[in-house]
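Quick one, probably user error.
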């Protein structure tokens, strides 16, 4: 005899306080998992959060937010990956085909630094 109980989605949604809260929790968990994978990649490259922050032109606190999944915008993740020497590609699925979009510095939003001013490092600074 097994003590396994089949997962009851409806009961979970009720315990969570409704569909919206259950979805919010799912998104938080997914963001944390992605952040942990980014942190593992940073460590694999032998970098500290402070070293990566310097390469990104942000504070170590900002890197920590990304790695905890608290800041998971495409812009932030693309900068993080770029500072590790990688490139973020987005894949859109349309059922019968997929479309890959490469994120590039040209596609990032303007820095707001004013004419003639260039940000330090490879990418414009993140808005803090």
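Nope, works fine. Designed sequence:
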């Amino acid at each position: 005899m097994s003590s396994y109980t089949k997962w009851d989605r409806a009961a979970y949604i009720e315990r969570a306080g409704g569909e919206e809260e259950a979805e919010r929790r799912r998104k938080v968990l997914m963001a944390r998992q992605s952040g942990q994978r980014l942190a593992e990649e940073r460590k694999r490259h032998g970098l500290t959060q402070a070293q990566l922050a310097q390469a990104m032109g942000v504070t170590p606190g900002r890197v920590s937010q990304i790695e905890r999944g608290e800041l998971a915008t495409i812009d932030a993740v693309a900068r993080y990956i770029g500072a590790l020497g990688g490139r973020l590609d987005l894949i859109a699925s349309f059922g019968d085909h997929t479309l890959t979009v490469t994120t590039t510095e040209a596609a990032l939003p303007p820095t707001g630094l004013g004419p003639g001013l260039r940000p330090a490092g490879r990418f414009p600074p993140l808005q803090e």
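Confidence is low (pLDDT under 50) at residues 106-125.
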